[in-house]
């Protein structure tokens, strides 16, 4: 399904006057505060968030899945869905594939299809948390960390194949979320699990092209409930240190113990030049994979506050970051959920851009805690929606992507094309 | 598959001498401490734990399931498996069914089959956390709490049917774990959800036979990740208060927020005469559904300490309790996991029986905190395994059920009968 | 120290033009959305938050306290400080006293002093978490729950005295935060602790004037680290049910286990007509007592969303609520901290007033989760600061209380009067 | 106060027969299992736990402190108290001092006094979490991380002085628990705080004698409630990596977020050769500083399981570890609490020694999760009390130290000597 851009123009035309009133009022306030509105608009427009192929269908839990309709049935349809999002918001210009579900049969065709939607291929993702049919060895007791060399070799080979598929499509990074872990005390020797995993990683790392990165994700629990091999940022950093320059940590917002100060972890990774990227989502309890910004929007802002500070600091030399969403849409239309998520990410980014860094630095230097809070919250309380809308307007996207999506009945159209019982493949 | 009891006799014969040495040493120590060993053995023997029908197969997570072999393919085979456990430990004399997966086609036959293994039917469980094929309305947005009366009616009808099946089999209780909840702020009005649920509960309660109980389980999150309708013991108690005498709270050990003092909740329910029963399991992070006693055995003991105190207190008039396991065996043989779980439960029970209640009461009265800890830990540190083994010996069970299970290659036999790809139905 | 109101007028004059631009822009947007701006301003102006007498000095931890200067040395000076706050923001029109530290020697004088600042006396607070010199019995092992009747009687008598002091001053409520609890398993019998506490409560309740309320606060841990007698909202509700109509639950935002859904607890209390009031603060880990809105501002908004809904619902008959701050200012000037806290509370309140309740109800009825989130976040994202400023302007308060406080060097003045080493009494 | 050893002999005489029956029974069982009982006894006897000087008095919270009587009033009396413990259990042969409270005026005398009790001086501890009178600069906003160089220099100088005192007494390690952190987002720049701290550490490290170690403790929160500079093991390890070989991580059991897998952290530190030592205590919620083993005894066992495995592994070259208690005795007699804590530590150690490592390794290699659990829990369930008692008997300590302490009325004697209102100095 390809959106008729004239419909977007019409939508923008209809909303234009109301938008302009709000944008002008905000622009005036920001100018008063010595913000460069055009520079802000450029930065906001340039910020692109990759959509993972597995997030285009309805998600579920171990207790079941309540599917919606019109879900993409193939890699081509997944690319179409991301293209649709990108057309709506001009902020989702990349797709992140999951192998084995998204193996491109004809990479050339797939690249052309993506290009027709102005999409790039972000990091490719391997999978060893599930067994596939016809697989020789089971990952029940681990993959890259398994005690049996045959299982490790199978998982290493799979990762190398994922790199190959990524090369075909123009990806520049491999993300490994290693679900390996244990459910009971004593099940494995922690140290030996680490060492076997390191050995496996090294073999994969050796196959990585020079301009690629390896993202080492961490997670404290689930699907295993006693320990995981890469349980926290400290372990991720240890692996990255031992692997080399191309290995970088990946932060998934839901992969932390209760009350973790995630923004400090972001700062630590940046300090060490070892931050690779993000999996955005939100959560209240564990890895809930909820819509970004739906539960703790202030935490998201504080994370972006670190990112903006770190990326603009001349002292740091962290490589450019990858931004991805990793959410599970159990009770929302996946495309609506993703529109909300991208908006939340860009909201936090825009707010973080507004922080008066010089004033903040001075307040920090003088231990003026009250003022430091005022400075941060001044940026956070600013209603940046007109700024984001203006950025979209200038990029040819819809002023109100979600409203447009509903008005033009996109989901209904997808259901018509793909059926009410079309379920996305993947996870 | 029916175990040859002569094999158990042989096993017990082989282990007898070694067991007797240990048991006699322990019995001597306990007698020194004025414990009545025979009375202890009787209580331990009488303690029976129900096995839920869904725990006989391999469990999984949203990321996948790594099945084992020889799993029961039918209600009859589930009963056989529980019968097998009961033969091994003489402590698992009941099965708890899950509708719609375990609907008895011919209740008379099913009852006779169960009786042949000396099994009773414990609480029956309804299910509205998943949609079934041919169902008119979806539970995606709730069941007993749904905004649409048609959906609520369907769920009410289902629960009433579950009662009917239970009546056919001789059950005396209905357990409702209501997964209804929300994933996002604003999704539902908390109060109206409660009120609709109460109305649905009342209709189900009205159908409950006089000698039945309704167990109202609570859980803070999962499968929904912002709120659940019956989120905590306070909410469960409110429902029970409003429903009437037959409604009682059910405590699942994994259904609590981090650091919750569960033993105090047990005490509160008992104080109000509103404790119905338990779903035993263990966990480190959330509702991990691990083997009972594998992570926090001391907490389990403290819970039994409350139960023994409460059940023996003349001040209290709580009805008799139901004991059930509710675990998910993702990386263990389900039957081995259940043998370990039952053993852990009875261990905690036996240790709690050893607590010197008079001395404890005196220490509490005098605020002698050090002594109170000594008294509890004295009981906890006692190695009660010979006591449990002796109780099994006297009941005709195996001295070492797990060792026997492995020696006689029960799983291999089940695989041979049922196949390596026989997957349990249910959940 | 009494603020010269002409300085406030001058401040407002200086900021007037800039404020008006922002307010007019916001008012235009709100009017577009069918909000009644004048009605909003009235509600915001009427919302008053009580300041506890113990929050006027620097707080500390068990590891020490780093005092600031110019802290109030007496009840009179505490009242002056609250008067100062109220002059600045016209939103802090009440003080909540802590006995024994704030015993009024001459209640008539104290009432006149408070009236001169337009202050009322909110709930009075008893203290049995510390021993005072000359006290007969120690609270080391509890007070209202103590095993020894003499200790309980002493604590009961103290609470009755607090009521008497409150009557003298025109208070209408007693807040009991009962720190009683245990540090070790077995230290106390949970049920008997509850029963002794209930008996003590009943004796205090009997002395409560007809138009008074008793607020029953709950807290899961600290200063005791295994259990507390009133550990959660369920226990608080049980006490309130058993005591009678005047007993109501009090929610302190920091008194919950990790990840608790506090807004649902608020809804439950309201549903039962049993919500008494709030102790506002913020926290990341435990009872951190940080500035309101400094860590989880969205949670605060969601709580106010419940409160606005509940207070406006014709189905509910909960009594009017008490709003108090309970924070500890360890690294901020206490008065600045309180100004930030009051502003955060009123921000959340104003945002909650903006929620389109009809639209939300419709979205809920239709399970339109995406839209429900949009509706809530639309209100939350609105920058309501101009609305609050306008409300202050109309009430004669400062447009920017914190800026004014710093410009006029209030703290320096207080230090000059009271000394650099004047430490607040209390806690 | 010096214990009359003949009283201990008498006590042991009285308990001897009963002890021997239990010990012989256990020894027989252990021998059956191919354990070398004498080797076990030697290892248990050699295991010594250092007592911190601040743990000899009653602890408290920010809400108050309920002191006991007879607390040590001087460094000399603190040494006497540890001597007393060591006489009772022959397992507390070291004291860990806290400067500035324990500055030895005459180190020679102090060393002689300690030697008379057979005590060594374990790690010395610096303090910058509190201001002392006559101090030039305040640590309110940090010490080694402070933005102001003068404050950092003062803190560095203090640490160097602590090293000097340690050298005088024969200590071989400096423990730095750096309380520096922030209470609010934005208060400090995370990276710069780290860099300033590193610079300060390097200056201290440069003053460390060659045979000394620097222990870098971590803690996620308290006394600051938003962030701490050394928040987790990953940060501790980063500092140690950057400082050099003598810098090692220190694990305090209470310094973790909810649900942290501490035993895995222990394994990680050991793998990197960077584990320095332990601060033992127990907790349910945060840094509760409760008696070791009173809340999670199985977790303690699992930690010792890692330690025993790591210390005996030929693959690892971690330096010898320091064992210290760090607890706060709010409702128990401090000496009784310490006796219970040392007993709990040695219990976990003894149980960990019993683990059949070869069998465990085989089960791990074969992913036999059920068996791995059986092996660990077999060791854990063994009642090792007779083993510990025998070890004490052979070392000349009391069979039942706590019982002996009470029988001989040690506390009463201390109160008689030191007064009912003698409060320990320190923290």
TrEMBL record, chains A, B, C, D:
SUPFAM superfamilies tied to this protein: Xylose isomerase-like (SSF51658)
Record keywords, A-Z: Isomerase, Manganese, Metal-binding
Source organism, top-level taxon: Bacteria
Keyword Metal-binding appears in the UniProt entry: yes
InterPro entries the UniProt entry points to: L-rhamnose_isomerase, Xyl_isomerase-like_sf
Single GO molecular function: isomerase activity
Database matches in PANTHER family: L-RHAMNOSE ISOMERASE
Name of the protein described by the UniProt record: Sugar isomerase
Organism field: Pontibacter korlensis
